[in-house]
What does this fold into?
Amino acid sequence: MYTTRHISPLELHLDEDNPRFRINVNPSQEDIRDYMISHEDVLRLATKMVEMDTVLPGERIIIFDDNNRNVVLEGNRRTCAYQLFLNRELIPNKYLRSFPKPSERFLKEIENISVDVVQTRKEAMAYLAARHIEGIKTWSSVSKWRISYEYYIDNVPVKEISSILALPVTKIKSNICDYKILLRGLKHENWTDEERIILSPLDIKPDKLIRLFHLSETTQNLGFYFDDNYDLKSSFISDEGIDKIIHILTNKAFIENSINTRTKYMDIADEIVSIVESYKVKKETSSDKDSNDPKDTQGENTDNPQGETNTETGKEPQEETGTETGKGDQGNSGTKTGEGNQGETSTETGTGTQGGAGDGEQVGGTGKGKGAKGGTSSTGGTNNLPYFFQGIDYSKLNPNDADSHGISRVCKEIQLFSNRRLVETFPIAATFLMRTVIEHSFIYYSKKTKIQGQNKLIWENISKNGVANKLNAIIKNYSINLPNYIQDSNIREYYNDLFRDYDKSVNPLNWVVHRPDEYLLPAKELIELPRKGLLAVINYLIS
It folds into this structure.
């Protein structure tokens, strides 16, 4: 319940906790006023008020009592303008000449204004939700990202944030993901003092940086996905490597200004590839060194940086498509919409929130291996890679395409199986699922891809009378024709490492399928296979 009273705008306190203009840890009222003139169009609003020569009709300002301070929850821009009208000494010097002067009649009108008073900040949210429906759509990208992120780190469930901000759940999740990438770039320890000034969140347009992480070429080549804490991960690059990539691209976007909203992955690939190759060498060296380490056999539960699946909810990842955001759960891509408000760019494909929390579920729990909310871990090594097939991305499979139905179902089950960390408990089932996803990925890719230089589908070479050949025949045919079947050189390398020796790689899976009484694969080997390039190959084949 709220009440109404009259009060002088000079007795109102601009809300330093408003995520839209949180400038630093403890911004002063002077800081907020300066920011709002510079970035929130208060100067233009004030000019309009002076032209109208009256208080603009419509919604009243909403405040609440916070330790005897009348904190403004809604209407900070209007309050700021009123304060500067009533006391020009509050106007920052650089705006003093340009800030308009109202008439005496108007000043008299705003000496005391009508405000709605609520008891708590939380109580105000119910009133603000309906009013935000149109307002938030005009905010800058970084403002939308920040307010979603601030609610999230305050442990507000995603569905409740969606209700408060009147934005779709998928949009809230994408906002959190994007802001976390931005923070990793801006807070990197290697920036100089001069660079940190340039990188002020108030002065940058982050879309040109963030869009790069959602381009299909980027996600395919770097294996990107988001974990259930909305942190950017890769199926084969460590957190440390991802931090380096983010740092390089942040530097290019805002310090060098060498990338823009039309930059493609291939334009920045050379420097990124050097990091990936360096990581691969480091990883292989580490694996050789530690292969006989007895500690290697201790509990796999620490292998997954994303922690254990929330067993209380048991929710599987959502399948909705983020049509407004450019990203949806399970990696489902958003629609290509071009430019949004205030320079906000909707990207083409979207990076999925693999294993993301279900709608309304409080996210970012504290299961084993999870980093604290709002932060990222940098432990390096294979422990940073997804558990089994958590990182599988079947977002580009068309549900209306009959060819995709089988592989889509397999992907969904193997990801759910992975999210619940069931390999150790059900290694035979894990083997069945792995072999199935391998076979049907090749079949799907073959039905959709033409042989290089020919107007002929690969499918014609690996099938007879519309029925796929056995898996060993499919692999043999691919091995012979690999350069003409797969154009990506990295994927060809992974393929050769995984499938050239069929008896060593795939046949053991067959032995488990056909003779489980005689042969079983250790759970640890099953968990490691996707981390050795298999996940990247599968994601490529079904993309």
